[in-house]
Amino acid sequence: MISVEEALKIVLANQHETTVSEVPLLSSVGRILAENIYADRDFPPFNRVAMDGLAFCFNEVDLQKIVLENIQFAGEAQKTLQDTSKGIEVMTGAILPLGCDTVLRYEDFNIQQDGEKKFASISIPSEEIKKGQNVHLQGSDRKAKEVLLQKGIKISPAEIAVMATVGKSIVKVQSTPKIALISTGDELVDIEETPLAYQIRTSNAYMLAAALQQIGVEATTFHLIDEEKVLYQKLKEIIHSYDILLLSGGVSAGKKDFVPAILTDLGLEKLFHKVAQKPGKPMWFGKTKAGKIIFALPGNPVSTFLCFCKYVLPTLKAEIKHEEVILDRDIIFKPDLTYFVPVKTYFEAGKMMAKPFLGSGSADFANLTDCDGFVELPAEKQVFKAGEVFGFVRFR
Ligand code: AMP
Ligand code: MG
Q1: CB 249 within 8 A of CB 181
Q2: Can you tell me the distance from the alpha carbon of 139 to that of 288, in angstroms, rounded to the nearest whole number?
Q3: N or C: which end of the chain has fewer CB within 10 A?
Q4: Are strands 277-278 and 338-348 parallel, antiparallel or unpaired?
Q5: In the predicted model, is pLDDT for residue 362 greater than 70?
């Protein structure tokens, strides 16, 4: 049986190879960028006024009485300062008028009227005025043709803004894999049905579909009964049409847990079966020759969810966030397994604490609604003390 660390390493080393597709800008949020984005012009593209106020030429202006000869609004073509001892009123976002180099804020002067003439009298000490102030110089953020966004990053609203500003209306992103969610089990009925005394409604497929939906990935759901011929035939069809299969149930030691044997019969390469962890020990992972990836997760909902969060999500999100929490009470766990305990985190004196919910084990998924992740207690230890720091697998 392999360790959690080895299992994650194998999963990350055997990911589905994505292709590239083109999507409209807004649809690219949350996706992985598949091209470099370049500055189409300087950033900012012109010497930009950064404050509403008054622009002038620092070395030439008559600071005693700055006569205002014009107004430069945002969105207007550049005006020219005719008399270098004078000034021009300017608005934030406007191009700096030709002949000016410095901007004073409205807060720092008063405008007075002298007949037809308008002039500014400065209300701050003149030493406080610095040449070039309140001007955002052309190209000072980025130069034209510079790479603004690197291929491979995850697109957030900030990246959307950058792409909008360089006029990228269509964006190349890595295509999302086609995912099949397959629950197995003769005891399961769908949610519209009323289960008989010995049946339950399926929840795993909905849980996983919801988790995928949150990261913008769509999946098709299937339900298969615990019947070897049916499993063989249906899985063969599904593998043919999908890139990643997420199965739940049928991977443990039960007499009708046919999934691992069927996956082998179908010619898949088993990369591991069983991980030294609780919950989720029976997890199976493998791939086809064509590079399709199969995660067969145990059916108990907490196990399914833990395995999904720990192994499947990092491959789909192309990132692993390493978080840590401080255990707020002692836990003793003797088996040589990594113990994932559902926890509720909270802050105390600026530190993230974790309150464990030991509950009644891997079937107790109602417990998860009180929690926001799993604390990861390593296999090598048996006593986990309040105040010790451990890894955290967040799901909320
Ligand atoms: P299995 O891994 O097939 O042995 O299932 C372990 C436990 O998880 C059993 O109690 C199943 O009834 C339950 N289970 C399996 N699949 C699901 C599912 N899709 N939704 C809810 N519970 C499930
Ligand atoms: Mg089952």
Answers
A1: no
A2: 51
A3: C
A4: parallel
A5: no
Give the model's confidence band at 321: pLDDT under 50 very low, under 70 low, under 90 confident, else very high.
confident
Contact 140, 170 (CB under 8 A): no
- The structure tokens 């590239």 sit at 20
Burial of 15 (0-12, 13-18, 19+ CB in 10 A): middle
User: What is the best residue among 200, 207, 251, 297 to mutate for testing ligand 1's pocket, by most ligand atoms within 8 Å of CB?
Assistant: 200
Peptide bond into 44 cis (omega under 30): yes
pLDDT in tens, 80-120: 999 999 999 999 999 999 999 999 999 999 999 988 899 99
What pLDDT digit, counting tens, does each position of 28-75 carry?
A: 998 899 999 999 999 999 999 999 999 999 999 999 999 999 999 999
Pick the ligand that lies closest to the CA of residue 199. 1
Q: Which atom of ligand 1 is nearest to the CA of 226?
A: 3
Ligand 1: which residue has its CA nearest to atom 5? Answer: 299
3-state SS, 148-185, equals: EECCCCECCHHHHHHHHHCCCCEEEEECCCCEEEEEEC
CA-to-CA separations, 340 to 210, 248, 272, 373, 378, in angstroms, rounded: 22, 19, 19, 9, 9
12 token code pair: 């990350």
Instruction: Give the whole-angstrom CA distance, residue 283 versus residue 269.
Output: 15
Q: What angle do CA 223, 225, 230 make, to 5 degrees?
A: 100
| 219: number of Cβ within 10 Å | 21
Burial zone of 344 (CB within 10 Å; 0-12 exposed, 13-18 middle, 19+ buried) = middle
CA gap 173, 346 in Å, rounded: 36
pTM, 2 dp: 0.78
Alpha-carbon distance of 345 to 392, in angstroms, equals 10
